[in-house]
Amino acid sequence: MAAEGITKLMTRPIRAIVDLSALRHNLGIARKHAPHARIMAVIKANGYGHGMLRTAKALETADGFAVLNLGEAIALREAGFRQEILLLEGFFSSDEISLLKQHDLSTVIHAQWQIDALLQTPVSAPIQAWLKINTGMNRLGFQPDDFPAALRNLQQAGAQVTLMTHFSSADEINGITEQLSLFNTLTHDLQLPRSMSNSAATLTFPDALGDWIRPGIMLYGASPMSHINASELGLKPAMTFTSKIIAMRDIQAGETVGYGGTFRAPGTMRIGTVACGYADGYPRHAPTGTPVLVNGQHSRIIGRVSMDMLTVDLSGIPDARIGSSVTLWGKDLPVDEIASAAGTISYELLCAVAARVPLSEAE
Ligand SMILES: *Cc1c(COP(=O)(O)O)cnc(C)c1O
């Protein structure tokens, strides 16, 4: 009852609607590209803003889920997910090791101190360890020279090992060649499962699929590559970010709109105020001209994005009214277009949808 009361009071019309069938469809695209690999669905950052448990449920046929926090991994186990669950940055202190074991969680091992901690923390059954090799990203992982000893120590600690690396430029042409050949040189004669590819590599480098792929962004229907759009990849947007027009006015030539008066009307025009601002997760850096849909018709935002509102050009949309629907991104308006207008990537926009935006789902 209480929850329902709160839901009813979410009267501000902004919503993020998650299309569960799009998530399932995009998982199917990942499978089509990697029919012989298992899929570690990356649902960190609250499922890239789509809701972690909701996303996991929609993607329940995935072979594994990757997150960052122990608490998230345990929440997935407690929600009943039986597949492999991987901590992408591994554990952060040796206190976590017994919980990893208790909940049958897999951990990335990227540094010697983690192996030392494992050696000093006897556990009854083998730990599932994803041993990370730094092949050029220079973020996490063992240097190639240190890798053989790390593997030996980890196996001595009783771990079951999967080998992994992460590409720095899989979204660029020829972006993985050097890293892949280094990884192959280090691992080709080891009879251990291997995992290399994020979304971009899964979609463009069939020789890097390995035993486990690790797709993230493609599952949410955005393109990991600036030179290919999501629909060309067969992906469907999983999130539609919508709101409504809450005010309208006609302005005269020379009048300005919004903070700083950065937009000046070239002539008489009709404008609309939308209940969505940067505190909802819409990028403040989106300039005049960033695309938006009003009643399904293409328009543009004008002036600066404020904390709670933004303004749209209604000149070409005679049927626009107070209450008309506004699509900020999603179905029929790729989030990649908004990201590129704002000088960022879809990942950042999806993750940044604010907690105050009610998230709901549609089949
Ligand atoms: C986030 C992440 C991924 C997923 O990357 P996408 O580009 O979203 O597909 C895969 N592997 C690792 C190690 C990651 O941190």
Can you put this structure into words, describing what you see?
By secondary structure, this protein is α/β, with parallel strands linked by helices. Helix content is 27%, strand content 23%. The protein contains 12 helices and 18 strands. The strands form 3 sheets. An 8-stranded parallel beta sheet has the order 8-7-6-5-4-3-2-9. A 6-stranded antiparallel barrel has the order 10-13-16-15-14-17. A two-stranded antiparallel ribbon has the order 11-12. A hairpin with a 5-residue loop joins strand 11 (256-257) and strand 12 (263-264). Helix 7 (112-120) packs parallel to helix 8. The longest helix has 14 residues, at 20-33. It is elongated and about 75 Å long. The chain starts with a helix and ends with a strand. The mean pLDDT is 95. Pyridoxal-5'-phosphate binds next to helix 10.
